Amino acid sequence: MGYRTYLDLIRPLLRPDQESYSSGMRGEIKRAQTAMAAARGGKKVALVSSGDVGIYGMAGLVLELCREQGIRPGPLTGGPGVDLPLEIVPGIPALAAAAALLGAPLMHDFAAISLSDLLTPWEVIESRVRAAGAADFVIILYNPKSSQRDWQLGRVREILLELRGPATPVGIVSRAMRPGQTVIRTDLARLSEYPVDMQTIIIVGNSQTFTFADFLVTPRGYADKYEF
Amino acid sequence: MGYRTYLDLIRPLLRPDQESYSSGMRGEIKRAQTAMAAARGGKKVALVSSGDVGIYGMAGLVLELCREQGIRPGPLTGGPGVDLPLEIVPGIPALAAAAALLGAPLMHDFAAISLSDLLTPWEVIESRVRAAGAADFVIILYNPKSSQRDWQLGRVREILLELRGPATPVGIVSRAMRPGQTVIRTDLARLSEYPVDMQTIIIVGNSQTFTFADFLVTPRGYADKYEF
């Protein structure tokens, strides 16, 4: 079970005797509830997210629903009082896939921020961008834009330009490791010039990040400390 | 090639005709240089890190060394002027593996901070802990302690207790998905009571994180927005 776009990616791996259920954007609550009901009915269910199910993914929604509905989750082995045996399987998060395609931008401390203000007040998001920008974190922007949200990324760029130079390296990765993948290396000044969507992740370097031979690198600091 | 502990984990997967080279802690510069020299000499080399090579891993060190030594890295396909064909392969980072074992603590914005002050001034680390704490990020602490660094984690706990309640959920995961794995769910007040080492990662919840049936959950906010 999963969002249609992601389930289509793994469809070639399914066996003929496996059932599948997919739905579109914003169907995530129904999807999670359908998965939970099927699992409680005795089926073995895999609820699939893109990247890692535990990073802005479906794992938390299932647990939020369990709490709201008085369903007790527990280990796959079950046990007394366990209504829903559950295992969360980690994957390769979008931030790791994007970083690998760009070079090595996550060698030093980083902050991940989702720009979706559907469930989070914009003031909270903006305060996190400011805090991470001021403390010189590498910043990873999830959900930079959607058809209903078109101004948030521009505002984030303005805030970061108050705190970092216009030449700060920026990487823009869409559909990492999937058909249609694009990888763009640019800088903070030109961040707004490229197309982004819900399948895009953006990495903004810290004050030390440099571009070298097409690789984005945030140094750990070896070159300062040791003679090579 | 890799750090001895990590290479030992994959040794059963090596073919008899494959050579291996490992070394101990703090041998990372020599290890990277040996790998680079072998690759430039025509061997196919895999330089192995734990978790994801791109998150506080070896990918950045190789690129730092390339820049210092005037070696031009490029794609695996080579090309004009490329001295070192290089591909960075993402993996499952420790933060994702630990999160999955704990539940779903990374459903909302998070910051990763390494407490190793070997290459980073302690004041920078402390300022990032303060900034991430004040902006209500979930906080992931890498390298919390080593035989030479024993007071840093206690100091971080003090700082976070100024900004968050003592009952804030905390997860302590060592050797995630490996022999000797331990998973501890506790809170900020009791963070110092458990053994941690260089193979431990710590996740400190934000103001919304809760513990439910042995799962650590940072809600995305669905329950506030929708009727279930």
Structure description:
The structure is a homodimer. With about 230 residues, the first copy, chain A, is α/β, with parallel strands linked by helices. Chain A has seven helices and twelve strands. A five-stranded mixed beta sheet of chain A has the order 6-7-10-8-9, sandwiched between helices. At the A-B interface, helix 3, strand 3, helix 4, strand 5 and strand 6 of A face helix 3, strand 3, helix 4, strand 5 and strand 6 of B.
Key structural traits:
228 residues, alpha/beta, five-stranded mixed β-sheet
Summarize the structure.
Two copies of one chain form a homodimer. The first copy, chain A, has helices spanning 4-10, 28-40, 58-69, 94-102, 122-134, 152-163, 222-225; strands at 2-3, 22-23, 73-74, 84-85, 103-104, 110-114, 138-142, 169-174, 182-187, 200-204, 210-212, 215-217.
Low-confidence stretches of chain A: none
Give the spatial strand order of the biggest sheet of chain A.
6-7-10-8-9
Anisotropy-based shape of chain A: elongated
Largest interface: A-B, 75 and 75 residues
Total DSSP helices of chain A = 7
- Secondary-structure class of chain A: alpha/beta
Mean pLDDT of chain A: 94
Q: How much strand content do the residues of chain A show?
A: 15-25%
Summarize the main sheet of chain A: 5 strands, mixed
Name the helicity range of chain A: 25-40%
Oligomer: homodimer
Please provide the ordered H/E string of secondary-structure elements of chain A. EHEHHEEHEEHEHEEEEEH
| Terminus-to-terminus distance of chain A | 51 Å
| Radius of gyration computed on alpha carbons of chain A | 20 Å
Q: Report the strand count of chain A.
A: 12
